[in-house]
Design brief:
Blueprint (H helix, E strand, L loop, with lengths): L1 E5 L3 H12 L3 E5 L11 E4 L1 H9 L3 H7 L6 E5 L4 E5 L1 H8 L4 E4 H14 L4 E2 L4 E6 L5 E5 L4 E2 L3 E4 L7 H7 L5 E13 L10 E5 L3 E9 L2 E9 L11 H8 L7 H6 L6 E8 L7 E2 L2 E3 L2 H4 L8 H17 L5 H30 L4 H13 L2 H13 L18 H4 L4
Parallel strand pairs: 1-2, 1-11, 2-7, 4-13, 11-18
Antiparallel strand pairs: 3-6, 4-5, 8-9, 9-10, 12-15, 12-16, 13-14, 14-15, 17-18
Helix pairs in contact: 1-5, 1-10, 2-10, 4-13, 10-11
The chain binds flavin-adenine dinucleotide.
Length: 408
């Protein structure tokens, strides 16, 4: 069976690796002319590590990643608001959490793709997917090439997925009322004392510091902002410095240790759940199918889960592609929809500006029970995966960060 994958990001490459392991010969088509070097980092929670281990990548991730054992929350004055015992979460789920730079994760994926003999065709920007006279999808590229594989996988991301347009029609991403600045700080010396995730909550603002090593930290700053006010800014670093000038260290030290050209600002969008992820012989995966907000902490993790499940669905299929697509959606739709909803719930709390709402949110965070929080996250994130310590079944409220700190 010929398999073409549109998009060589986390979803596209991990799906390619999972399918190659099952004996298929996928080919990946990526719009960029060379591997991406931008983007900050991602936290790969234990459910992602399970998939990475299954794909044979976890050792390489361990070599390049940080191993956070705790997440500390603080308010904008530096007062403690509790945290997450990541070491306990890892023990409960049976796999470690890693923090990685996006470009390093991408390098590991590409390296394994090369070793597995998976062709990755750079400089192939898909511009349209259409049906031919036999009802089979054809993908057309900007460079004039076209492909007509037996199975076409749309892994072309969140914002302008050509495959999603073909499958679902007009499903446009939804702006969720906040902007993110992301960056990677590289210090001469340690920028943080230990490998702990630090999450600072204000009123309508947030700053997260995620170390990989003490001198290498990626970060994401965020602010609630109407879309009409997301206007171009000449100096992104100055904008962040100004916004967080009165916040506790290590925030300013980290921002100042970030080269101006390593900072990006993103108007953050997510997707409404789609009514279907497939049409004809095309299937959507990753952000093209179910992009959650970064506040879910799970976008990349869910892209990796797609890869693991899709390989199993294809392998176990006795019928045609329709059966595979149905089985895949049955396993994946409810978990991804609930995590996306939890990302929204958490964002509403995080970016609240009303002082009383923020006070209640902070009180709840301070009073949270670390053992209970770990159990909720483990049940939610482990759902559908054969991981030790995970009871299969999503808690009623979804089992993501949003279910821990909801304020509605
Ligand atoms: C600020 C921020 C922080 C985040 N932090 C985390 C985190 O800590 N943990 C986590 O799990 N997730 C996190 N995420 C989410 C995560 O980054 C995404 O969910 C993940 O990258 C999805 O992978 P993907 O391959 O589906 O999409 P992408 O990574 O966007 O990859 C899509 C690929 O398709 C290519 N492409 C696009 N259009 C075309 C086209 N027309 N033709 C060919 N190729 C095309 C792109 O160039 C790209 O290479 C974060 C997201 C943001 C914005």
């Amino acid at each position: 069976m010929e398999i073409g994958i549109l998009g060589g990001g986390i979803a596209g490459l991990s799906v390619a690796l999972a399918l190659r392991k099952q004996g298929y010969n996928p080919r990946v088509y990526e719009r960029r002319t060379e591997p991406a070097t931008m983007g900050a980092g991602v936290t790969l929670w234990p459910n992602a590590s399970f998939v990475l281990e299954e794909l044979g990548l976890l050792q390489d991730i361990a070599a390049i990643g940080g191993r956070p054992l705790t997440m500390r929350r603080k308010d904008a004055m530096g007062n403690a608001l509790g945290g997450l015992d990541i070491a306990l979460l890892d023990r409960t789920m049976g796999y470690p959490t890693y923090t990685v730079l996006r470009r390093h994760l991408q390098e590991v994926l590409l390296d394994h793709a090369a070793r597995a003999g998976i062709p990755v065709e750079f400089g192939h920007r898909a511009v349209a997917v259409e049906l031919d006279a036999n009802g089979r999808a054809v993908a057309y590229f900007e460079n004039g090439a076209s492909i007509r594989p037996d199975l076409l996988i749309g892994a072309d991301g969140r914002m302008g997925s050509v495959a999603r347009k073909f499958v679902a029609g007009d499903n446009t991403p939804v702006y969720q009322g906040f902007v993110n600045w992301i960056g990677v700080a590289q210090g001469q010396h340690a920028l943080v004392d230990d490998i702990a995730i630090q999450d600072f909550w204000g009123a309508g603002e947030r700053f997260g510091c995620v170390p990989i090593r003490p001198e290498l930290v990626y970060w994401a700053a965020a602010q609630a902002r109407p879309f009409s006010e997301v206007t171009p800014t000449a100096d992104l670093r100055k904008e962040v410095e100004k916004l967080f000038a009165q916040w506790p260290e290590p925030i300013l030290a980290i921002v100042r240790a970030t080269p101006e050209n390593a900072i990006r600002r993103i108007a953050v969008h997510d997707l409404e759940p789609l009514h279907t992820w497939s049409r004809a012989n095309v299937l959507l995966v990753g952000d093209a199918a179910h992009a959650p907000l970064p506040t879910s902490g799970q976008g990349a993790c869910q892209a990796l889960e797609d890869a693991w499940h899709l390989a199993r669905c294809l392998d176990g299929a006795s019928g045609g592609l329709d059966d595979v697509f149905q089985a895949f959606a049955k396993i994946r739709a409810s978990k991804t929809a609930r995590l996306a909803e939890q990302g929204r719930v958490f964002a509403r709390g995080l970016f609240a500006t009303d002082p009383e709402t923020c006070r209640i949110r902070n009180e709840r965070a301070r009073a949270s029970n670390p053992m209970h929080d770990v159990q909720v996250l483990a049940a939610g994130w482990g759902q559908g995966l054969p991981m030790p310590g995970c009871t299969d079944g999503m808690p009623a409220q979804g089992g993501g960060f949003g279910s821990l700190y909801r304020i509605e």
